[in-house]
Here is the input.
Amino acid sequence: MILVRVQAEPLDLAPLLPEGGDTGAVVTFTGFVRGDANELGGLVSLTLDHYPAMTERALAAIAAEAERRWPILAGRVVHRVGRMLPGEAIVHVAVASSHRAAAFAAAEFLMDWLKTKAPFWKAEERAGGTTWVEARASDDLAAARWE
Amino acid sequence: MILVRVQAEPLDLAPLLPEGGDTGAVVTFTGFVRGDANELGGLVSLTLDHYPAMTERALAAIAAEAERRWPILAGRVVHRVGRMLPGEAIVHVAVASSHRAAAFAAAEFLMDWLKTKAPFWKAEERAGGTTWVEARASDDLAAARWE
Amino acid sequence: MIELLYFAWVRERIGVDGEVLPLPEGVATVAALLDWLAGRSEGHATALADRGRVRVAVDQVFAQADTPVTAGAEVAIFPPVTGG
Amino acid sequence: MIELLYFAWVRERIGVDGEVLPLPEGVATVAALLDWLAGRSEGHATALADRGRVRVAVDQVFAQADTPVTAGAEVAIFPPVTGG
Here is the structure.
């Protein structure tokens, strides 16, 4: 069972530990706000906008698809919204399975689909102003691998 | 820089957090002792034997190869040795990179190579006695993907 | 009536979070709704100028150009998503 | 002299953790060393019966059948690894 959650509070990155005796592998992904010091002025903050009525529903659909494809024993997908600073965690995915191949594949799938199918939008605040992040073609390609 | 370590003490699964502003993605893998309740009598304990003079050297070589292949900002590979119980962590790998594709690939690579190129051997203690675990062809296939 | 919701730069260009409107006469699909909305104000026109950069969800599910829009629907219009 | 180290079921079948021996005359490769060792005792013969199930490291680096073995080497013999 993969738990999904959207929250304004900082993410809890405590490890997902085995419950019951079947867990042999846990894979986690955590996405962090990069400071982008090399780019003009660096990043001051990142703000995540989302579509509340749809977000958890979209995440639950993505999680259900992962559970249909791989034998997942436990998992979580937690996405932060609102304003955050460089170094803070934006999203955390954890998947427990009996074997590592399924845990790796499911975690990567969850991220690839979340990046392209969940209604979040990033705005970057820099010294020069705030701009919306453009979607990346590489994310579409990553998601298409699983079609 | 990927730190490698072999230890008899329980593993520390505290999250790898960004240092400096370039980290956008952290992927972790943790391997746990399965209880195998469905198999006759279940598992009582697992003992990891290793070749001390070679182990850290082999892990360092695997880590160096990962750093040659992907832009890794930080990482760790920690393997436990000695006797452990179901639910305890055997191995923990963490990789930080700017982007998720590199972090996922490097973590999976580290595990696949560790499974086939680092001198560890598992012995399973069950009610009927203790037996050495057989190497799995699927692990050889997984490692061969990276050749 | 239909409820329209705008997010990210679609919201900023249109200038409001959303609006509740009678379903315009002759509008039965997402594509027709976007065509009609683009004529509603300069902000709407700017936001919807490049349809390839706009995504739509009807009742919280991603929609296509030919997805039906009926009275009572919640129609959200936004840029390609960039979470994660 | 060479130092031999045994691990996992290779160690159990041979019955010792390792042994220090003069490099046998005419032995210059891993394959030749295994052939010579297999004749040393029933335990050695059992441990090395199926060469396909035995792995060797010379001076802590994985070796092949034709890897040279010279005086002063540390030669470890063990089953395929199963860590992780």
